[in-house]
Design brief:
The longest helix is centred in the first third of the chain and has 33 residues. Strand 8 and strand 9 form a beta hairpin. This protein is of the alpha+beta class and 206 residues long. It is built from 2 helices and 11 strands, in the order αββββββββββαβ. It folds into 2 domains: 33 residues; 168 residues, Immunoglobulin-like (Sandwich).
Length: 206
């Protein structure tokens, strides 16, 4: 083998090894961030875990997620990653007042669709920090300025969690209003690792 061909072969080998190392590091980072309920923050972003909702571990033992919010000068970028989900399942993400029932004021943010491996990702721009709130000064309902500092993720198809055994003892699937057609299923992930009155969005500052 001439010297030039030897160098080309070594370069290909090194490149493949480098790509494999990057992929492995990314997988470890995803697993660690998803599993840890402890928050981390820097001057530019805030990362926290999404926790399984009550009863979900029995039917989806590996369901988890994490969120990174990066503040901007006028709005914030929220990036959501979920894993351990049913293949090709669809979900709906809401900013909510309380992480578990009765949830309080809720604001529909985005769909999050899992791929064939049960992993999904979505990016959303908006106000996702200590200033996030809703208010109604009249019309069909009236309420004072109310902060929403938590996140909740719901099954888009109400029959999916029922068929997975996530609703033991029930004769039919539970229907909730947490999708665009108001016929969603039960909640799968939330931010109950934070206090009701101090959800993760309250820790984000611009």
């Amino acid at each position: 083998m001439n010297f030039a061909k030897h160098l080309r072969r070594r370069a290909v080998t090194w490149a493949a090894a480098g790509a494999a190392a990057v992929a492995a590091a990314s997988a470890l980072s995803l697993t660690a961030a998803s599993a840890a309920p402890v928050t981390s923050s820097s001057s530019h972003s805030f990362t926290f875990a999404l926790m399984p909702s009550p009863g979900i571990k029995s039917c989806l033992p590996h369901a988890r997620g994490f969120v990174t919010i990066t503040p901007g000068s006028q709005n914030d970028l929220m990036e959501v990653t979920i894993s351990g989900m049913p293949s090709h399942a669809e979900f709906d993400l809401f900013v909510i007042q309380q992480p578990t029932k009765p949830f309080g004021v809720a604001w529909y943010q985005t769909d999050v669709d899992a791929d064939g491996h049960g992993v999904g990702h979505a990016s959303v721009r908006g106000i996702f920090d200590r200033e996030t709130f809703s208010v109604s000064t009249g019309g069909t309902t009236t309420f004072a300025p109310t902060h929403q500092f938590h996140l909740g993720l719901w099954f888009n198809d109400r029959n999916l969690p029922f068929n997975l055994g996530c609703e033991p003892g029930l004769q039919q699937a539970v229907q909730t209003p947490f999708n665009g057609e108001q016929n969603a299923g039960i909640q799968v992930l939330n931010t109950s690792n934070f206090p009701d009155d101090a959800g993760p969005l309250s820790h984000v500052h611009r």
